[in-house]
Amino acid sequence: MGLRTAVLGASGYAGGELIRIIDDHPSFEVAHLGAHSKAGVDLASVHPNLTGGDRRLLPNEEVPDVDLAFLALPHGASWEIGDALAQRGIKVVDLGSDYRLDTDARYRFAYGSPHPLPDRLTDWVYGLPELFRDAVATANLVASPGCYPTSALLALAPLLSAGLIRPEGIVVDSLSGVTGAGRKATEGLMFTAVDQSVAAYAIGSHRHRPEIEMALTQATGTSPSVSFTPHLVPMQRGLLSTCSAPLSDGVDLADLQAALDGAYRDEPFVDAIDRAPQTRWVVGSNRALVHGAIDVHAGRAIVVAVLDNLVKGAAGQAVQAANLMFGLDETAGLAMTGWMP
Amino acid sequence: MGLRTAVLGASGYAGGELIRIIDDHPSFEVAHLGAHSKAGVDLASVHPNLTGGDRRLLPNEEVPDVDLAFLALPHGASWEIGDALAQRGIKVVDLGSDYRLDTDARYRFAYGSPHPLPDRLTDWVYGLPELFRDAVATANLVASPGCYPTSALLALAPLLSAGLIRPEGIVVDSLSGVTGAGRKATEGLMFTAVDQSVAAYAIGSHRHRPEIEMALTQATGTSPSVSFTPHLVPMQRGLLSTCSAPLSDGVDLADLQAALDGAYRDEPFVDAIDRAPQTRWVVGSNRALVHGAIDVHAGRAIVVAVLDNLVKGAAGQAVQAANLMFGLDETAGLAMTGWMP
Amino acid sequence: MGLRTAVLGASGYAGGELIRIIDDHPSFEVAHLGAHSKAGVDLASVHPNLTGGDRRLLPNEEVPDVDLAFLALPHGASWEIGDALAQRGIKVVDLGSDYRLDTDARYRFAYGSPHPLPDRLTDWVYGLPELFRDAVATANLVASPGCYPTSALLALAPLLSAGLIRPEGIVVDSLSGVTGAGRKATEGLMFTAVDQSVAAYAIGSHRHRPEIEMALTQATGTSPSVSFTPHLVPMQRGLLSTCSAPLSDGVDLADLQAALDGAYRDEPFVDAIDRAPQTRWVVGSNRALVHGAIDVHAGRAIVVAVLDNLVKGAAGQAVQAANLMFGLDETAGLAMTGWMP
Amino acid sequence: MGLRTAVLGASGYAGGELIRIIDDHPSFEVAHLGAHSKAGVDLASVHPNLTGGDRRLLPNEEVPDVDLAFLALPHGASWEIGDALAQRGIKVVDLGSDYRLDTDARYRFAYGSPHPLPDRLTDWVYGLPELFRDAVATANLVASPGCYPTSALLALAPLLSAGLIRPEGIVVDSLSGVTGAGRKATEGLMFTAVDQSVAAYAIGSHRHRPEIEMALTQATGTSPSVSFTPHLVPMQRGLLSTCSAPLSDGVDLADLQAALDGAYRDEPFVDAIDRAPQTRWVVGSNRALVHGAIDVHAGRAIVVAVLDNLVKGAAGQAVQAANLMFGLDETAGLAMTGWMP
User: Fold this and answer.
1) D300–C227 C-beta distance less than 8 A
2) pLDDT given at position C52
3) What is the Cα–Cα distance from C170 to C224, expressed in whole angstroms?
4) Does the distance separating the beta carbons of D337 and A50 come in below 8 Å?
5) Chains C, D: CB contacts under 8 A, how many?
6) What is the pLDDT of residues D177-198, one digit of tens each?
7) Burial of B187 (C-beta count, 10 Å sphere; 0-12/13-18/19+)
8) B341 preceded by a cis bond (ω within 30 of 0)
9) Do C169 and D198 touch (CB under 8 A)?
10) Which residues contact C283 (CB under 8 A, 6 or more apart)?
């Protein structure tokens, strides 16, 4: 008999991935499918890829007694229900951003308004297992990282920790597939608007930047300044971050690679590799790949990280954290093998 | 009666674009279509989009007496024939890279070997009209810029010239459509290899970096250090560069925008705009768009430039230079209107 | 001084193409840009590819005195304004479907309700120049064909006229790019819904079938039965129809090709070719290509036709008709050269 | 301890899918990875999505003693090795076409030359479990169906068996993603050649037509004539067939749907559904969906079938057959859940 989970926001792309993963998970089972505007409709009508019998979406609010709730809700929609579930003693993994930042000040900087429950912020653990495994394993409430931060943190944390790069002048340029923008129908996300085109957006102001800086500070004890620019590219899934930073004096490629290799040698889901990765190598899996290089002429380290924004960048990472929270094998139910081509 | 031109490398993508543009040009006409392995085949079999009667590709070498030759050849294939045409008194616009760098030292740095005709390098003018219009207008031999450098130069030169950014710590991350990789059939450029995926390549070592630095130095009198990383994205055409640099003290967004507006107010093909551009806005046209923003937190200027890699990044820019070389209207035959969607 | 035209529905994809074409047309000029929900906004904000100065969208209804109005409106939105413009003595080319069918009975069959102005139906000429050139040339009111019918009619009419195929058992399976579905933001047309997938829709009931049968009857004097199934494929532009019909007794490939060659030898925009065409060969141009083959084993003719749904299938064809209506060169302002790749 | 399998043609797309499936299969394991030109290279270099330790491709010919060999080889490459493995007493599932046709006459019709081992043809069972389950379950040698035939057979066989459609005048128009064309680098399969375009190919002459007709005859006892036209569409995976046939007298939609529902109610991998399916609903899974409709006006049944060409159309179907051959649960190791979006 599996651990009972609720998936809120089940009609979205991250929600669909959660269901796909949990349906095959050896220890979890889906006990509640919550939705907002899609409440009342059949699961198969919103996720025709999912089989497993007739299942219906119910209102997000009507969570039964479960062991764990996954929240895959838009920004601003999880703080209240997340806190209510916590009060009921239900463990929560929030895939959204409401509880990711550790202080009200940082939240105000990112979102321009105070956090509605600032006293609760420290109740939540930032759920990147590769950097904060012990905290995740003992947490009841986990704020799962954003897709962009996951890639940037995996690329940069080992180098900052080892002092191989300087914390000033870090540049992260990221490319994301369109599923990263969610499922809501808008003009800007139509096929005719997105296909055959790329664009940068939220230049100098994306909300994931404070998250990147916070987690780097927590993990490495440095105070980095990161300039982050996301780009939308015409593909369904996949995320690539090209992370660049000034090298510390005397650092060479061997130092860089040794730091990345050392950091990920024993990690089940992250590999440091010696050639430039493509996003499609990991799409469908919970793997991330990092590749370190040096621009000798410019004196900069360049680390490229790739992952599937809906798996390691969302649903897979959330299940990875949940596995730790329940003392399960960290890899339970999570694919190592990607879909290709 | 038009000015007679030869198009060498007519079977490639840039060659096809040259023919498309020249066929509609009021003053130029195509008098010779040169090819290498495709010599002897019908034009329509390699470019089925081109109409205009039965035309056949001939060997690249058999250039008749023409007024102008466009060379759209792979790297290393234009230095010899370009020089031979120059000796015959034929004006040449080389879309390739053989004559873009101004010194043998720079060439060795970029390509790892000496230039075969180092004494000729100074005979060629670097053909970016927006930065070197007068030189182009009086040149007989023009080395037309690469697609990546065009975007980076348009983004950065006005800021460097005005002292708004510092020359150290410049980062250029570029995204290119697949036509930028040429037409040769390789495993890595198959639909199944490229679609639904992105990747960085030539990290820290791309040949366009020395070209960017050279032209910035020539145009602005500074000695910038540029870290350049290109990325391949799954679209046919379009190129976007996100160019980032540390701000000089006291510079604000108004300064940045004023510099870009001033630089391009009278330019027919470049517009400074106040929203983040998409590549598809300019695909099919010879236009480039630049958009300046500031990352206040990180103290960096971020300028995004977009263009069509085959037009403003190749064939259109070459015709723009040719227009200047023959005293024609700089915009003759060049589309201002893009193809969308 | 050009002939003054109004473009209603200027914010849509066909509207944008009309503007793009008319802006470069030697005899027409845009005197009014009409829109519905986008009235009041700048043209550049809805069609960033279009240059040509500051232009603003106005309400569709406020058409000034012009020589010609193009209606690029949704189904049901052009009958009233089309009739009002006709009453004012303005020539009209309606790209929509309101006036394409010749009888109220056919309209009821296609749309399930009576035509609001059935007496007006005969005032409008079905605007496929290749089949009805003389009627178009003398018309004041033209109903421009749909994209699917254009392809099917060009493929089938010559064979039916020559008696080479039988009128029963005709099957037309068509593939269309996503721009054919319009610009309105819906869940089903998002990149995430459309990319990497194909589907058939409106099986057995698409509104274009009666239009195909009507025009075939008018052009060939036969009464064909056509089973038509459209498919949506993940590309921006382009339409392909595979049209199949039982061969009449004794017909061979030479007969088939002779009929197609003969029909299109003198047509400026249609070519009969001897290899299977790709849609990208004609995207951006007003060309259509037809290719005839025979399935000997099954005893069927198979004709494949390709065109750009927004050009020969919409805006280009409308301008072609308008050229005829004003006694201009039929090819004026219309590209023969496609965009590739 | 699993049953030991060999995968020949391991470097191709179907080979990669076989490995992906077998690696997660509860009863099979990969004991030999065979390749031709890629023999000697690491598996990860040709399939970077596959994890599971260092594995190397060996020559196809060096098959050790295994329980089962999967042949994922080009046409013409499996008859000899397939026969040799059979002589060694190894069970074989051939994903290729060498042993699919049941007579030399049919082979000559399809391929234009005699079969090299015509006496062996009857040793092989055509491996579509939904039509020939018992034969597959007792076979030692299985010729797994092609991707196009699988879709057409699932759509048409129940209707022909029930006499709901007439065997003359059947038209199958199919759309396939690009992985269906294999992995070999050719000009026609480059991203720049395939993206943003569709085309029909092998019109009237595709080799899968005789296979469709043979299997329909075997399964239904009729002698249908099928006109088959495949189309290449710009997506990685997925196959859709629109199958159309004249209705028998008096047949209505309820008859059609009852036949499809009855045929697939107990099938684990095929569902008859009441809305038009998209290919992406089943990509990544071994499911096929069929949807029956009627074109009342034209008197034709139209059945649309979708599947993943690399799974139910290749590797998944082969494993499904292998499960039957070894008396395993038919669904063992085969995903029911697709990848979306």
Assistant:
1) yes
2) 79
3) 8
4) yes
5) 163
6) 999 999 999 999 999 999 999 9
7) exposed
8) yes
9) no
10) B49, C237, C238, C308, C311, C338, C339, C340, D196, D197
10 Å CB burial of residue D236 (0-12, 13-18, 19+) is buried
Contacts B49 to C, Cβ<8 Å: 280-285, 337-340
Report d(CA D24, CA D335) in Å as an integer: 10
**In which element (H, E) is residue C69 found?**
strand C68-71
Calculate mean pLDDT across residues A305-322: 98
Q: Does the CB of D298 have a partner CB in chain C at under 8 Å?
A: yes
Interface check D47 vs C, CB under 8 A: no
Partners of A171 in the β-ladder: A227, A244
The answer to whether D57 touches D38, Cβ cutoff 8 Å, is: yes
Q: Which token pair is D125?
A: 């069972």
The pLDDT value given to residue B1: 61
Model confidence over D18-75: pLDDT tens digits? 999 999 999 999 999 999 999 999 999 999 999 878 999 999 999 999 999 999 999 9
Q: Do B166 and A246 touch, CB atoms closer than 8 A?
A: no
DSSP state, residue B315:
I
Q: Which two tokens stand for residue C45?
A: 């904000």
Tokens (6 digits) for A214: 């916070």
Q: Which residue of A has its CA nearest to B341?
A: A192
Q: For the stretch B157-179, what's the b/e string if a residue is b when 16 or more beta carbons lie within 10 angstroms of its beta carbon?
A: bbbbbbebbbbbbbbbbbbbbbb
CA dihedral angle for residue B288, residue A229, residue A312, residue A158, rounded to 10 degrees:
130
Residue pair A231/A176 in contact by the 8 Å Cβ criterion: yes
Model pLDDT, residue C142:
98
Residues in chain A with CB shorter than 8 Å from the CB of D281 are 48-49
Q: Do B234 and D186 touch (CB under 8 A)?
A: no
Using CA atoms, how far apart are residues D30 and B202, in angstroms rounded to an integer? 36
Minimum CA–CA partner of C180 in chain B: B341
What is the per-residue DSSP string for A172-220? EEEEE-GGGG-S---GGGBHHHHTT--EE-STTT-THHHHHHHHHHHHH
Which residue among B18, B110, B147, B239 is the active-site one? B147
Instruction: Give the nearest chain B residue to D48 (CA atoms).
Output: B193
pLDDT band, residue A335 (cuts 50/70/90): confident
Please tell me which residue in A10, A147, A260, A334 is annotated as part of the active site.
A147
Residue type, C246: P
Q: Which of D197, D291, D293 sits opposite C278 (nearest CB)?
A: D197
> What per-residue confidence (pLDDT) applies to A52?
79
Of A190, A196, A235, the CB nearest to C190: A190
- Cα gap A282→A153, rounded to integer Å: 17
Tokens, residue B154? 């348009």
Q: B178 CB near a chain D CB, below 8 Å?
A: yes
Average pLDDT in the A190-211 region?
96
**How much is the average pLDDT of A45-73?**
95
Mean pLDDT over residues B197-212, rounded? 96
**Of B114, B74, B245, B89, nearest to B168 (Cα)?**
B245
Q: Do A197 and B235 touch (CB under 8 A)?
A: yes
Cβ–Cβ contacts within 10 Å for residue B252, how many? Answer: 12
The yes-or-no verdict on residue C1 having pLDDT over 80 is no
C147 is catalytic: yes
| Average pLDDT, integer, range C286-314 | 98
Contacts of C254 (CB under 8 A, 6+ apart): none
Closest residue to C302, CB basis, from D204, D295, D304? D204
Length of chain C: 341
Q: Report the distance separating Cα D291 and Cα A301, nearest Å.
A: 54
Residue of A nearest to B202 (CA): A276
| Given the residues C147, C219, C305, C315, the one annotated as active site | C147
CA-nearest of A74, A63, A20 to A285 is A20
